[in-house]
Amino acid sequence: MNDALRILPEIILTLAGILVMVADALMGKSSSRKPLGWLAVLGTLAALAASFWQYQLPAGTAYYGVVQTDAFSVFFHVLIAGIVLASLLIVLDAVTPQTEGLGELFALMLFGAVGMMLMSSAVELLLVFVALEISSISTYIMAGYRRKSAKGPESALKYFLLGSFATSFFLYGIALVFGATGTTRIDAIAAKIAESNTPASLLYVGLAMIVIGLGFKVSAAPFHVWTPDVYEGAPSPVVALMSTAPKAAAFAVLLRIVYGAMPQLRADWVPILWWLAVISMTVGNLGALRQRNVKRMLAYSSIAHAGYLLVAFTALSAEGVAAASFYAVSYAAMNVGIFAIVSHVGGYDDQLTLIDDYRGLAYRSPLLGGAMAFFLISLIGIPFTGGFFGKFYAFAAALHSGMVWLTIIGLINSGIAAFYYLRVVAALYSNPAEAAPVLAIPKPSLPLLLAILITAAATLILGIVPGSVLSAARGAAGVFTSVSNPLPTDPGPPATTASR
Amino acid sequence: MVPIAYYLVLSAILFSIGVAAFLIKRNIITVFMSIELMLNAVNLTFVAFSRQWSQATGHLQVSGQLFVFFVMVVAAAEAAVGLAIIIAVFRARNTLNVDQIDLMKL
Question: Is residue B106 part of a domain?
Answer without folding.
Answer: no
